[in-house]
Amino acid sequence: MSKKVRRIGVMTSGGDSPGMNAAIRAVVRTCAYYHTDCVGFYRGFQGMINGESINLNARSVRNIVNQGGTILQSARSKEFLTEEGRAKAAKNLKDAEIDAMILIGGDGTFRGGQVFSKEHGIPVIGVPGTIDNDIYGTHYTIGYDTALNTVVEAIDKIRDTASSHNRLFFVEVMGRDAGFIALNSGIGAGAEEILIPEEDLGLERLLDSLERSRRAGKTSSIVVVSEGDKIGKNVFELADYVKKHLPYYDARVTVLGHIQRGGRPSCFDRVLASRLSVKAVELLLDGKKDLMVGMLNNEMESCSLDQALKGKHNINKDLLRISEILST
Ligand code: F6P
């Protein structure tokens, strides 16, 4: 029988995402509800290695449900990739009498957590928090919805100036290897073209499409480009290529960058973070370990960390077809 869980650690790791604070709050309050101690570790795995922690009670997390960023801060720890680093973290957790950890982050976080749990026998549960939405086992990750709204708002503004000047804009959005942000924000903002890593449409097709738009009487256009897209080397080179081949276009580039990671979480992300985190604590108290919680068809589910890491969350390719129809 597994050891009873009396003291749970929580941390946030990897790229921060809006709603991580709502997740921390829900972990802490659920622990309080079940009379379980909760300890926060700063800067993800690095704080576990350095033993930087804080005891958290229900009042420690007041007024953070609406805040962007993460009160526990985040990091991508290189030291945790080493056996020695992980051993230091395990020693600190044992000294602090931590029975289990909740890891809020993306695939890098879960990979680290899985190795750590195997090596040191400390149960972990992953809560998916990343704006990229690229995690298998959940239809939505914490922060994705807020990031989409941030991007759509920014593109709406770009469209104003694009149409005032009859310009073509290339807008680069985040999503290291995944096109979720580009695809959905592109449809939401009415982009003429959407370029994502999952579907290489080719440069010729892009030129054809832009020419068609012009012939159809469009005077300005928006092309949303996912940062992971491979069609051009980068968005600036892509814009140069188009300018060279279609010189009548007055093209500009906007890279939205890290504004996509900030801001107040949307209601959707707050509710998602709350539901996932309550489930994560309950699973640990129930003796479960090495799982990731997720939301599938609006239900709270869980899968093994192994499945979450090996599986692929596929984009809905029908959205590309819809985008093509709507940009006629
Ligand atoms: O994983 C989330 C993410 O925002 C990616 O979309 C992006 O490529 C990356 O993080 C940027 O990371 P950093 O903040 O370390 O530059």
Structure in words:
This protein is α/β, with parallel strands linked by helices and 328 residues long. It is 41% helix and 18% strand. The protein contains 11 helices and 11 strands. The protein has helices spanning 20-33, 45-50, 83-95, 107-120, 144-164, 180-188, 203-215, 235-245, 267-285, 305-310, 318-326; strands spanning 7-12, 37-41, 53-56, 100-105, 124-128, 168-173, 193-195, 221-226, 251-255, 291-296, 299-304. The strands form 2 sheets. It has a 7-stranded mixed beta sheet with strand order 3-2-1-4-5-10-11, sandwiched between helices. Strands 7-8-6-9 form a 4-stranded parallel beta sheet, with helices on both faces. Helix 7 links the parallel strand 7 (193-195) and strand 8. Helix 5 packs across helix 6 (180-188) and helix 6 (180-188) runs parallel beside helix 11 (318-326). The radius of gyration is 22 Å and the shape is elongated. The chain starts with 6 loop residues before the first strand and ends with a helix. One of its GO terms (molecular function) is 6-phosphofructokinase activity.
